[in-house]
Each structure stands twice: as structure tokens, then as C-alpha cells.
Write a structure and sequence with these properties.
With about 325 residues, the protein is mainly alpha-helical. Helix 3 packs antiparallel against helix 14, helix 5 packs antiparallel against helix 7 and helix 12 crosses helix 13.
């Protein structure tokens, strides 16, 4: 049994909250109930305690209400699906996970629903229709692409679970860049803040790096705060756990290492922002709004951890007794 404390992660960005937060709090549960996304009262209670609406309101502080509702539904959908993969037996059935993920992509691309589709499929169809009604085709194309990447990470994780494999650090960073769904959430900055990112800017190396670094920041903070919960579930896809196995360190030491990695990425993000070349007034406005969205996500994510009941933090933790194989990249 090992004692540890969670670190104060570096975040120089101010807290901002969407003025529609109270409306969103009431709406959030309504949508989940409408599509019957959970089959037990206890799961609805856990969903309520998670307070995902606070994450959404902090991540998109300038978003109009209707777009905010859609973003919240996407985030709720992702967390519910993530729980099914992490906690239930589904996560240890890679072929079934792959089949479901492929079906979800078909639904996002406009396939007709059938009685055999899961409630998650019906909910995803609702999200699709509302985004198309309020967004643009270019945005939705990138949205689906990011969903495909996310599902790729889910399938990779499922394969590892069946083999009791702990990926090595480099392999885990690669998997985490997909399965954290952070790219999807950052993609929603465009939708929520009504930012039209031109093709040449989207392909700019510095612009891409801004998103990639932010994805790491969000992933590492999540891994630090969720490590107790994931160890209790026998989950190994977590930076702290990977560091513990690969470097033969204690959980407490691995948390400190993960925190340093997080803070390093925050500093890299700030340095990169300062090195962004001036590409004209119009592009500068777009970049400024997008970077503001990145800052809001980083700060809103950290603030949410202080309010959510999703990750119960205890003073003591015990490492899982299972033996895992280190997977080389």
C-alpha cells in the first residue's frame, strides 16, 4: 500500500465559464435520458456526479447555447462509450469493439438506423443531424476523421487488454494521441467559437503542433487524475502506470514524472505560440481565437477535476497484482 498526493499541475491560463452553465446542467441529463444511454439507475447517478456540463462550460466559455448543448452531448457520448470500453467486458473484445466503431462511423456518414443499433448509435445520429444543421461540411469532414482516429485508439487498447500488454512509453504516447478523444474536443473549438480555419493554416506545422501539444497536456492531466480509478479497474493505458512498469518506479514517483511531462508541454505550448509567424490580420484573428480555445480547454479541464465525482481520489492506492508484458513500438 503506497501513499501519494496529486501534484498541482502548471496552468497559467485564467478560469472562464460559459454563462449558460446552469441551463446546460439541467439539459445534460435530459439528453442522456432521452436516448437511454445507460441501463441502470446507479450509472445515471454516477453520470450526474461526474458533472460533465462543468467541463463543457469551462472548455467553451464563449459558445452560444445551442452549440454548447451539442458539444456537451459529444463529450457525454465519449465518456459513456469510454466507460463501456474500460469497465465492462466489451473492452476485452477487440473484434466487437471494431464492429461497433465501424458502425458508428457509418452512422456519422449518414447510414440509416436499424432496430439492431445501440442507443449510442441513435444518440450519435442526433449529434450528426444537429452539427450539420448548424455547422459546415468542411468542419464535419474533420470531425468524422477525428472520430475515426479516436476509434482506432479504442481498438488498439482493446487488443492490448486481451493480451495483458502494457505498451512502452513511445507506443503509449502514440495510442494516447488517438484514444483520448482530445482531437475531437479541440475540433469542436471551431464549431463552438465559429472559427473557420483555412486549409493552408490547418496544414501549417506550427498550427498542427499547437493542437498536438495540447492533446498531450490534456492526456497527461487526465492520466494523473484518473490513475486510482483505472488501477482499480485493472486498466493499464495510463501514463502513470506505463512509467511505473517501464521505469520500475513507484506510483508516487511515476506521478511526479508525469506531472513534469505535463508542465513541460505547457511551457512548449507557450513558446510555440510566441513563435507563430504573422500571416496577415485575418489569419491572426483566427489563430488568436483558436489559441484562446486551447487555453480554455486546458484550464477548464483542470478546474473540472476539482468538482467532478468521476475520479474519487483516496489517500492510499495498491498496485494491481497482474503481470503484464512490455510492448515495444
Amino acid at each position: 500500500m503506497e501513499k501519494f498526493v496529486l501534484p498541482n499541475l502548471y496552468c497559467p491560463f485564467p478560469t472562464r465559464i460559459n454563462p449558460h452553465v446552469e441551463v446546460l446542467a439541467d439539459y445534460s441529463m435530459e439528453w442522456v435520458l432521452r436516448y437511454k444511454l445507460m441501463d441502470r439507475e446507479s450509472l445515471y447517478q454516477k453520470f450526474s456526479k461526474a458533472k460533465f456540463y462543468l467541463l463543457t462550460a469551462g472548455a467553451y466559455p464563449d459558445c452560444p447555447l445551442e452549440e454548447l448543448k451539442i458539444a456537451n452531448d459529444v463529450i457525454s457520448w465519449l465518456f459513456i462509450w469510454d466507460d463501456q470500453c474500460d469497465v465492462s467486458d466489451l473492452g476485452k473484445k477487440p473484434e466487437l469493439v471494431k464492429s461497433l466503431c465501424n458502425r458508428f462511423i457509418e452512422i456519422l456518414n449518414g447510414a440509416e438506423l436499424t432496430p439492431d443499433d445501440l442507443p449510442l448509435g441513435f444518440a450519435l445520429r442526433n449529434i450528426r443531424q444537429r452539427i450539420i444543421n448548424r455547422g459546415n461540411i468542411t468542419f464535419f469532414h474533420h470531425f468524422i476523421h477525428n472520430f475515426e482516429d479516436y476509434f482506432h485508439g479504442c481498438i488498439e487498447e482493446s487488443n492490448n487488454r486481451t493480451k495483458l500488454i502494457v505498451p512502452d512509453l513511445q507506443k503509449y504516447i502514440e495510442i494516447r494521441s488517438f484514444n483520448a478523444a482530445a482531437a475531437l474536443c479541440l475540433n469542436l473549438i471551431e464549431f463552438c467559437n465559429r472559427v473557420n480555419i483555412p486549409y493552408y493554416l490547418r496544414k501549417h506545422e506550427i498550427f498542427k503542433s499547437l493542437s498536438q501539444i495540447t492533446i498531450k497536456i490534456l492526456g497527461w492531466s487526465n492520466d494523473i487524475f484518473s490513475v486510482q480509478r483505472e488501477m482499480a479497474n485493472g486498466e493499464v493505458h495510463n501514463l502513470v502506470i506505463v512509467l511505473c512498469y517501464q521505469q520500475q518506479k513507484s506510483i508516487a514517483q511515476s506521478i511526479k514524472t508525469a506531472a513534469k511531462m505535463h508542465d513541460l508541454e505547457v511551457n512548449k505550448l507557450i513558446e510555440l505560440e510566441n513563435s507563430m509567424p504573422f500571416l496577415g490580420e485575418e489569419v491572426h484573428t483566427i489563430i488568436t481565437k483558436y489559441i484562446s480555445g486551447l487555453h480554455s480547454w486546458i484550464r477548464g479541464n483542470l478546474d473540472w477535476y476539482t468538482h467532478t465525482g468521476r475520479y474519487e481520489i483516496f489517500e492510499k492506492i495498491e498496485t494491481n497484482s497482474k503481470t503484464f508484458e512490455i510492448l515495444s513500438s
